[in-house]
Backbone:
């Protein structure tokens, strides 16, 4: 749709890049009205969103990437874990993404963010239930640091998510809303917060370095390597929602949409790693809570359904007693 103009970088490219910078995240469908408006202004005639082709979009993504590469920025793409829509995000290719957030948020807000991530990938990510999501209530409750939650480094200094006096409940709610607006978090219909495609793209290296046990590179360390951050066996992207093998010690995880083509090609509904039957009823993400709703027997004969991550976490510690571990085969 756009004129080639010898493929020079012109004002239409600058306008598109400015629109991308303002949003940080775009899909092809979201970009079509933006490009249509740019083309209309540039060509002095109306261009409709449906007139914008995927080739137009890809050419502007390529041009934008070339323009920003000198400044250590990059437009990357990934697929949404549930809708499978291709999502494009503007990411910094060199600096620590947490440090980037520190330029727009206070130290207490960054500490709060780290506590949220610790809760997602440690507290509510156990061998029994890999939830990796937080309810609004659980998220707000993390507004202030707790001494019991403090993780110490080898020299005794605090590491993740602890510091300062914390923030108020209202400030926590505002921060959560801001993280959604900025494209770092998503909030599901059932009120669970989880990492967005942008966050998974930009934080990928940081998440794996922070939450996965590095193990011994020479293979001499006692016991297998522990993995909190796992990849979909089919697409090799981080998985925080989808399906898991029914065998707890098995590492195999698949996005829901990935299972469709994967098992069609494999012509079997067996786990590709351990060969156990793939049930399709063992979940990763919030469904590890909402699809289970297993009653927990209390003293006195009454039972209640455990549906919040905090309740599940307590139940896991009681039932598992620290026996189960997630390991690489």
Residues:
């Amino acid at each position: 749709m756009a004129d080639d103009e010898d493929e020079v970088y012109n004002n239409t490219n600058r306008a598109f890049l400015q629109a991308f910078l303002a949003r940080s995240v775009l899909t092809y469908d979201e970009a079509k009205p933006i490009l249509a408006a740019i083309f209309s202004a540039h060509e002095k005639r109306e261009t409709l969103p449906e007139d914008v082709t995927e080739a137009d979009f890809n050419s502007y993504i390529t041009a934008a990437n070339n323009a920003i590469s000198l400044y250590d920025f990059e437009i990357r793409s990934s697929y949404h874990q549930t809708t499978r829509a291709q999502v494009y995000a503007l990411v910094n290719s060199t600096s620590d993404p947490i440090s980037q957030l520190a330029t727009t948020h206070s130290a207490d807000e960054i500490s709060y963010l780290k506590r949220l991530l610790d809760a997602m990938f440690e507290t509510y990510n156990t061998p029994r239930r890999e939830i990796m999501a937080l309810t609004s209530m659980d998220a707000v409750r993390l507004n202030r640091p707790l001494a019991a939650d403090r993780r110490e480094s080898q020299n005794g200094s605090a590491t993740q998510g602890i510091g300062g006096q914390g923030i108020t409940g209202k400030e926590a709610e505002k921060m959560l809303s801001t993280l959604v607006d900025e494209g770092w978090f998503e909030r599901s219909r059932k009120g669970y917060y989880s990492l967005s495609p942008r966050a998974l793209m930009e934080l990928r290296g940081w998440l794996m370095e922070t939450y996965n046990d590095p193990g011994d590179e020479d293979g001499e360390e006692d016991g297998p390597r522990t993995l909190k951050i796992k990849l979909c066996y089919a697409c090799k992207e981080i998985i925080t929602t989808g399906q898991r093998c029914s065998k707890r010690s098995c590492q195999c995880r698949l996005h829901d949409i990935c299972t469709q083509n994967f098992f069609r090609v494999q012509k079997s509904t067996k786990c590709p790693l351990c060969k156990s039957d793939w049930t399709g009823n063992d979940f990763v993400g919030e469904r590890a809570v909402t699809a289970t709703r297993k009653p927990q027997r209390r003293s006195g004969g009454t039972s209640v359904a455990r549906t919040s991550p905090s309740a599940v976490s307590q139940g896991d510690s009681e039932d598992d007693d620290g026996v189960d571990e997630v390991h690489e085969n």
